[in-house]
Design goal:
By secondary structure, the chain is of the alpha+beta class. It has one domain. It has 1 helix and 5 strands. The chain has a 3-stranded antiparallel β-sheet with strand order 2-3-4, covered by helices on one side. A two-stranded parallel ribbon has the order 1-5. The longest helix is centred in the last third of the chain and has 14 residues.
């Protein structure tokens, strides 16, 4: 079975922000939302989520907003 060809998407397309009234951060990208205790953890979870949808997230963790 041939491996699935993943489309590349840059980390600049992601939004990292602090969740209000909760502990942790969230990342939104390509109509996906992930949460984590740190921006890096939330971003790593996003990498896995978009990979399942056929995308490959490239780049470093963007700065958190808010």
């Amino acid at each position: 079975m041939p491996s699935k060809r993943l489309k590349k998407i840059g980390a600049g397309k992601t939004k990292v922000f602090k969740i209000r009234n909760r502990r942790g951060y969230a990342v939104v990208c390509a109509n996906h939302l992930t949460e984590g205790r740190t921006p890096a953890q939330a971003f790593e979870r996003m990498v896995k989520a978009v990979k399942r949808a056929g995308w490959e997230l490239i780049g470093k963790v963007p700065r958190a907003r808010g």
